[in-house]
Every structure is written in structure tokens, then in C-alpha cells.
Write a structure and sequence with these properties.
alpha/beta; Rossmann fold; 35% helix; flavin adenine dinucleotide binding; UDP-galactopyranose mutase; FAD; UDP-galactopyranose mutase activity; isomerase
Length: 377
């Protein structure tokens, strides 16, 4: 008898498996359809011995000391601040847009104070910020929006920014200084030996059993369990009874090149004519030294593995129906990006899992105080 059946061995499932076993001493079965742990954060050495991220770049960053210290139990860190350039008008320019972006693009020599006025003169005032287009044009005007944001967003989502929730482009700030870091979080680092090693350490416990290459439906009625934590797509859990939730997917084209370096920073965005959205070179992220280098092109797709919940009103309305079903479950908790149809960063999923564990502790404490509550209804 397992105390918990956990569906999915990514961040949400692995954190909860570790907490439930190490702090509560309970028995956990973790099941994943893929043949590896770590979810999309899984990394591995390719045939040339270069550490790559098969599902695209994963860069860890957080402002939460609690989350960083928790993960530090399972990994040492390599300090790393991610930098991104955008290929615009034949130049590689810093993104998020900053002082150097504007000065190089227009051959100007503005100061930070002058740039604020420069933006203000071009910004389109909006009474209400409703869409992703509104977010950008209200800050920097339409020309920079067209050069840096519109094409990239249309490729990524197959929707115009005017059709997308404001949260999409709000994730990318605009700066008036020369800070060219993609993130400004207090903690920015990469697991020293890779994400997979970190997950292995997290799941290394005699009370954790991991089954890979297995759909949980194959074993859910064969293996005895008391409670379930589900981190997969919530619509699949309910057999798509209210319809399929839409996602954007990605196709990854990996290449290894017989040269030391391919590009000057970890990621270069291509917001305009190219069919791909970005190219990432992994050695920047990992710090690995190798005579060859590995890169990955990302091509947005409508079909494939679910990566990005679509931030629009119709999908949200569908999700709400599934959410109401989930609230009525007494033995199943839904955690993670796919189970809650939210575009979470890695640290946010860890935070959600840790918060869920605190709720589980309270629930079990209540049951200990009143044993009748734990009996099947």
C-alpha cells in the first residue's frame, strides 16, 4: 500500500515526493509516462558529451530565499546570469529593451533620463491595459513593438498580441539603464551537475518508488494507494469531458557544431522573418568546456507536447469547469503547470508544491486528531 500515488516526476511531483517521504515518513509511488525524471527540466549528455536540455533552455532564477535554500539541499550551484540578444535590423541587440538597445538601434547617445523622455514621446496612452499589445505600445511605442515583440509573439502563440492576455508581454520588462541581464532575481544559478542530478538526489529515498515509461492509468487500479497528487494535464484526467484545453507546443532542432562557440550569449531571439523564435547555446548556461558546441533551434507548433497554456479568455473558461470538478475531489490534489493551466516558472512550481505540502501536513494532522475522517466514505 502506497500512501501517495504521484503522477509526474517533474518539479511538482518530485518536490512533493521528497517532502512526503522525508518529513512524514510515508510511502510514495511516482509514475511518469516519459522514460526519465525531471519533466521538461531534464538534461542529459548528448553523443558528443555535451550537456544539453532536450526540451529547450531552463534557467533557474528566483527571489525566494526559501525556494533557493530548499533546492540547495539537492544540488550545488553555478552562478549564472542569463543574457539574451535579439536579431533586429541586422544587429544583435539586448533584450529586454534597455539604454544600449535604443542607442545602438538608432545610432543615438541618450542618457537614462533622456531615454525616459524618448519612450514617453513614442508611447501610446491607454486608458486600460487589456492585451499584450497594450502593454508594449503604452511603454515604448509602436515601432519598437513591431521590431521586437509583435513578430515573436505571433510566431510563439499563433495569435496577434492584440488577442492575448496582457500577462504575456508583461513578463518582459523595459529598462532605461544598461542592465542587460534577462532576469533581475536575487538568486540566479544553474545546478552545478545539471537538473537531472538534482532530481535524482531529490527522489533518492527508500520510501520512494519510481516507475518510468508508464501511464498512470495502466496501474491506477492495480497498485493500492490512499491519495493521489496529479501533475499532468487536468483535461486528460477528466477524459476531456469539457473539451481539450489548448496549448502551444515546440519542436526542437538540436545541432552539435565542430567549433568552440556559436553565438556571444546563451540565447538569441529572432522576432521577425525566421521560422524559429530563438537559438540557445548550452555551454553558456552550463559552463562546460568542450571543443564542440551544441545549440537548439525552437520552432513553435500547434500540436505536440503541451508546453504553454494559452492566455486567452476562452481557454480560461474551459479550465474553470475542470477546476470546479477538481475542487470536489477528496483524494486527489492537482499541482503544477499542466494540472492548474498556469504558465509557471520553475521556482513558482516549487513554491506551489511546498505550499501544497503544508496543506497536506495540516490535513493529516486533522485526520490523526479525528481518525474517522480518514475512513473511506
Amino acid at each position: 500500500m502506497f500512501d501517495y500515488l504521484i503522477v509526474g516526476a517533474g518539479y511538482a511531483g518530485s518536490v512533493l515526493a521528497e517532502r512526503i517521504t522525508n518529513e512524514l515518513g510515508l510511502k510514495v509511488l511516482v509514475v511518469d509516462k516519459r522514460h526519465h525524471i525531471g519533466g521538461n527540466a531534464y538534461d542529459t549528455y548528448n553523443e558528443h558529451g555535451i550537456l544539453i536540455h532536450p526540451y529547450g533552455p531552463h534557467i533557474f532564477h528566483t527571489n525566494s530565499r526559501e525556494i533557493f535554500e530548499y533546492l540547495s539541499r539537492f544540488t550545488l550551484w553555478r552562478p549564472y546570469e542569463h543574457r539574451v540578444l535579439a536579431s533586429v535590423d541586422g544587429q544583435l541587440l539586448p533584450i529586454p529593451i534597455n539604454l544600449d538597445t535604443v542607442n545602438k538601434l538608432y545610432n543615438l547617445n541618450l542618457t537614462s533620463e533622456e531615454l525616459e523622455s524618448w519612450f514617453a514621446a513614442r508611447a501610446e496612452k491607454k486608458e486600460r491595459i487589456l492585451t499584450s499589445e497594450d502593454v508594449v505600445v503604452s511603454k515604448v511605442g509602436r515601432e519598437l513593438y513591431e521590431k521586437f515583440f509583435r513578430g515573436y509573439t505571433r510566431k510563439q502563440w499563433d495569435l496577434d498580441p492584440s488577442q492575448l492576455d496582457a500577462t504575456v508581454t508583461a513578463r518582459v520588462p523595459v529598462r532605461t539603464n544598461r542592465d542587460d541581464r534577462y532576469f533581475t532575481d536575487k538568486y540566479q544559478a544553474m545546478p552545478l551537475y545539471g537538473y537531472t542530478r538534482m532530481f535524482e538526489n531529490m527522489l533518492h529515498h527508500p520510501n520512494i518508488k519510481v516507475m518510468l515509461g508508464t501511464d498512470y492509468r495502466e496501474i491506477v487500479n492495480l497498485v493500492p494507494w490512499r491519495r493521489m497528487i496529479y501533475t499532468g494535464p487536468i483535461d486528460a484526467f477528466y477524459n476531456f469531458k469539457y473539451g481539450k484545453l489548448p496549448y502551444r507546443s515546440l519542436e526542437f532542432a538540436h545541432e552539435t557544431l565542430p567549433q568552440g562557440w556559436f553565438q556571444p550569449v546563451g540565447t538569441v531571439n529572432y522576432p521577425n522573418e525566421q521560422p524559429y523564435t530563438r537559438i540557445t547555446e548550452f555551454k553558456h548556461l552550463t559552463g562546460q568546456r568542450h571543443e564542440f558546441t551544441s545549440i537548439v533551434y525552437e520552432y513553435p507548433r500547434a500540436e505536440g507536447d503541451p508546453y504553454y497554456p494559452i492566455p486567452a479568455s476562452e481557454p480560461k473558461a474551459i479550465y474553470k469547469k475542470y477546476e470546479e470538478e477538481a475542487k470536489r475531489e477528496t483524494k486527489v490534489r492537482f499541482v503544477g503547470r499542466l494540472a492548474t493551466y498556469q504558465y509557471y516558472n520553475m521556482d513558482q512550481i516549487v513554491g506551489q508544491a511546498l505550499a501544497t505540502f503544508e496543506k497536506i501536513k495540516l490535513e493529516l494532522a486533522d485526520e490523526s486528531a479525528d481518525p474517522l475522517r480518514a475512513l473511506p466514505q
